[in-house]
Amino acid sequence: MSKGPWLDDDEQKAWRSYLLMKRTLETHLERHLQREFGLSGSDFEILVNLSESESGRMRAFELGRATQWEKSRLSHHLSRMEKRGLVRKEACDARYPEIAITEEGMTAIKECAPVHAARVREFFVDVFGSERLAVLGEVSDEIVETIGRHCDTDCPLERNHGR
Questions:
Q1: Global model pTM greater than 0.90
Q2: Quick check: 126 and 132 in contact, CB under 8 A?
Q3: CB neighbour list of residue 113: distance below 8 Å, 6 or more residues apart
Q4: Mean of the pLDDT values across residues 54-63?
């Protein structure tokens, strides 16, 4: 299916439209989270993952895998959230502590999640409609699978940059 390394005009237009839509949507949703609830998009992502886990807690490496964040970014962000009382680190049998959502964190996610979901519906779901949304879901899954295969086979862990 590849026509070569460069995108043609239509492909470039579609790619750039996608990037602009993604940035605009994420920025808009995050601004509402910040203004209305005092949460960043990153706070929301952590709280969603913790609130959806059975125990309200996860190991840091599990959170890192779920968010696809680097270890240092996750560590720094969790420290900031802990200072604000949204999460806490709890000792466990393993070498590293578990990250647990606090009562304050659970209250925050319960307050903002319905409002956030309504905005996602307004600006994303309703714009796509059910048929196009189903296609988007299928294509998104295919893209993630394609990247997964690439990472499992011929994706270099580090790039030499000609040195």
A1: no
A2: no
A3: 48
A4: 93
Cα(74)–Cα(34) distance, rounded to whole angstroms? 19
* CA separation for the pair 50, 87 (Å, rounded): 9
Written as one letter, the residue type at 34 is Q
Residue burial 46-84, b: 16+ Cβ < 10 Å; e: rest:
bbbbbeebeebbbebeebbebbebeeeebeebbeebeee
CA distance 133 to 136: 5
* β-sheet bridge partners, residue 96: none
Q: Tokens 């709890």, residue?
A: 90
Please name each of the domains of the chain with its CATH number: 34-153 (1.10.10.10)
* Cα distance between residue 135 and residue 12, in whole Å: 21
**125-134: pLDDT as tens digits:** 999 999 999 9
What stretches of 38-158 show up as alpha helix (H) in DSSP?
Answer: 41-52, 60-67, 71-83, 103-120, 126-153
* Nearest alpha-carbon partner for 139 in 3, 18, 13, 6: 18
Amino acid identity for residue 48 in this structure: V
- 94 neighbors 109 (Cβ within 8 angstroms): no
CB 102 within 8 A of CB 96: no
